[in-house]
Specification:
- By secondary structure, the chain is α+β, with helices and mostly antiparallel strands.
- The chain folds into 2 domains: about 250 residues, no CATH class; about 100 residues, Immunoglobulins (Immunoglobulin-like, Sandwich), CATH 2.60.40.
- The chain contains 8 helices and 18 strands.
- The strands form 5 sheets. The protein has a 5-stranded antiparallel beta sheet.
- Helix 4 packs across helix 5, helix 5 runs antiparallel to helix 8 and helix 7 packs across helix 8.
- The radius of gyration is 25 Å and the shape is elongated.
């Protein structure tokens, strides 16, 4: 269930008492107030979380209310945060491909309800498509900015859209993920823009004539969308990011692999130790992971491993897991650490060192 209200500030008939009040009223005398509710086809349940947001865009004030099932929020809150690499056209790797946070389908119903409420609001108000898009962007910008270390106690904690809505805080990748999700469900070609030390959104055409800063890829313009604070319009870009390149991250389903491991059956001889390492790998992403494998070995320094063992390749569907066991041997005269990792697409996607 969702509701959206638009308020325009109005003058009152009261006589001013002090000069400040006179100025205040004069600034508001040409504005009107209008409230309305967009009902949802679904009724809320006692376990739904009621979420209300307030923001100003241009000369208008807006109030928006939606409802998120508490168990949906808990589902996303309990999902592990997976460091995902991707590759640029030149083959350089980087670590910020968060597209599977956008393409996870479990919250599509709730996000579509939000999109539908904005569509209906725009229709009733006679807003054009660009005005509606700016309204959605302003809505996300109203979510207070907060570093992950302050809100979650972790240096990096990317949120799924539902988490950002419920927590009502987020940093740049959180609000970018939410914005990209909503714009995609509105039918637009949206991308994540990985700017150094920052993340924003890019939006392309769809019959709307944007202006301002854009990134060009294959003759397609992706206009910059800043999501972290109010006041930025589509195409506006903060001074510190002007002239700075960005990786364009397309919102395609992708796997996200995590692992846990245990060691058992350790024995020793006069010259060596032997142990078995059982590794369980799970695909937390939104696409099948084909030809993945795990490895285990002992840290030899400089990125090298002693006694490294690798598993056969395996394929994991979304949400599935597999377990493999590796047998390791190490000289008793070496002081080192155990290293266990998962390889997909030619590089390590999850690694643990003990």
């Amino acid at each position: 269930m969702v509701s959206l209200e638009k308020g325009r500030k109005i003058a009152t008939a009261c006589a001013p008492i002090i000069a400040v009040l006179v100025v205040f009223l004069l600034m508001r005398q040409f504005l009107t107030t209008k409230y309305f509710v967009i009902p949802s086809e679904n009724t809320t349940s006692p376990s739904d979380l009621a979420l209300t947001y307030h923001w100003t865009r241009g000369r208008n004030d807006y109030t928006f209310t939606t409802y998120i099932p508490e168990n949906l929020y808990e589902y996303y809150e309990n999902k592990p945060r997976v460091p995902v690499r991707a590759t640029t056209a030149s083959g350089t790797t980087y670590y910020v491909n968060y597209s599977y946070y956008v393409t996870d389908p479990r919250d599509d119903k709730e996000l579509r309800e939000i999109v539908e409420s904005f569509n209906e609001f725009a229709l009733r108000e006679g807003l054009g498509e660009e005005e509606k898009l700016e309204l959605v962007v302003g809505f996300v910008q109203s979510i207070p900015y907060m570093l992950d270390i302050d809100s979650k106690g972790e240096s990096e904690y990317p949120r799924y859209p539902t988490e950002t809505l419920v927590d009502d805080v987020g940093d740049c990748e959180d609000t970018a993920i939410l914005t990209a999700s909503l714009l995609s469900l509105m039918g637009y070609d949206a991308v994540l823009l990985d700017v150094p030390e920052h993340m924003a959104v890019g939006i392309s055409g769809g019959g709307v004539s944007f202006s301002g800063t854009y990134y060009l890829e294959n003759n397609k313009k992706y206009y910059y969308v800043e999501t972290t604070e109010p006041g930025w319009w589509i195409g506006d870009i903060p001074q510190e990011y002007r002239g700075v390149g960005a990786y364009i991250v397309h919102l395609v389903p992708m796997p996200a692999l995590t692992h846990t491991w245990t060691a058992y059956g350790t024995t020793q001889s006069s010259t060596s130790y032997t142990t078995n390492v059982t590794v369980t790998v799970k695909n937390e992403g939104t696409a099948v992971a084909a030809n993945a494998h795990v490895y285990a070995g002992f840290d030899a320094g400089g990125g090298a491993l002693w006694s490294i063992q690798t598993s056969d390749n395996f394929t994991l569907d979304m949400g599935s897991e597999t377990t493999v066991t590796l047998h390791l041997t190490l000289s008793r005269y070496k002081n080192t650490r155990l290293v266990v990792g998962v390889v997909y697409g030619g590089y390590t996607v999850d690694e643990f060192v003990e």
